Amino acid sequence: MQVYVDRAKCDNHGQCTFSAPTVFRLDEQGVLQYEENVDESLRDEVEEAADVCPLQAIFIK
Amino acid sequence: MSTDIAVPYLDISDPTFAMHSDQVRDARAQHWYAKTNYGYAILRHEYVSKLLKDPRLSQGSGQWPDHNGVHSGLFYDWWTTCLLVLEGDNHHRIRRLLNPAFSPRHIEAYMPAFEALADELVDSFIDKGEFEVVNDFSEPYATRVLCILTGIPQSEWTTIARLASTIGLALSISIKDELPNIEDALAELYGYAEALIADRQANPKDDLVTKLVQANAAGDTLSDSELRNALCLLIFGGMDTTRNQIGLGLREFMRRPDQWELLAANPDLARNAVEEVMRMNPTTTWVTREAVVDLDYEDLHVPAGSTVHFFTQVSGTDPEAYPNPEMDITAERAPHYGFGGGMHHCLGHFVARMDMTIAMRILSQKMTNLRLGGTEEWLPDSANTGPVRFPIAFDKR
To answer: Does the predicted TM-score (pTM) go above 0.90?
Structure first.
């Protein structure tokens, strides 16, 4: 599964890190870092992260 | 060098202190933060955006009851365990379990009910050519939206509004004097919440409370008391804010009839219109945090335990972030922080955005030539602001 975050939209609130902590994290500067290629077993978590993103900036291919 | 920097000072407890003032705009032009009599105030958008989400700052209102002489009891137990003040893993666990039920995917199903409510309220005064925003629209609308969302009968909205307002007294400095009333109101609200939870556990429906009851993350679920606390927080946090923000939005539009007509002709702009009025005039004019550890950022040093206020209205009109800060509902803007930010970003913001979008769209479709229709009264232009009384006269469209 391919994960893509629209950096122009993302505002680094970090809500996605609660849903899928192994895919999304905030670095020491508070900037979102994420895995682009994610195992299919994490689909539910990543979909939840995309659903709850305040800026709706997460997309799954 | 930091010693060369003149840091402005703002007395935020002065009764005449106002966000919309030359004093605050001058302070923002002078420096990115100000000292206040209660900690620091962050004034510029770039810095609000950065520091509001900084994990070295906690939500900070967990000790509010203790600071005001309240150390135990029903209110104390609720406040000190509700999502608003939780930090770290305790917060993340509950936030994760609550978040999905408030996502657009689930909230959009409520749109027809919110539209029917807005239509009903507007129809009750549309032929009179005038209405009082708070009594005739924003308070019943905001409260009945919460009834629709939770499944409480809408006929009980005046009780819910009274309970939410009474619990809201806990945020005032009269918390200790009002404590018996606050606790009675909270106990009554607990009754509503516990009945809803028990009912949806026995009789699941396709609604928000059922989604919360069934929320499950890798086997983890919300306990009955966590569910009850969350429902009470939803009602406590969702009523005044929405009521006030609708009034603030209508005031912005009354000043800019060209924008109101643009909205009426282009109802798809309603969502952007809500963002624009929240940028220029958020009901939550500041968001407060407390430093968990010593925090240094550029020339700012915040000792652990100190307060930092993020001035949302001031950062939302910062000319550095918004070169043309005048109201423009067609503009694509940098995000505002009227819903706070970071891990404590408002949980119910998708609901609030949707219900206010519907309200602004339907109001603009039905009335034109908005003007003041009597004596208006407003809360102070700081902390949480909004109309107490806001009569509007209009022509039916």
So the answer is: yes
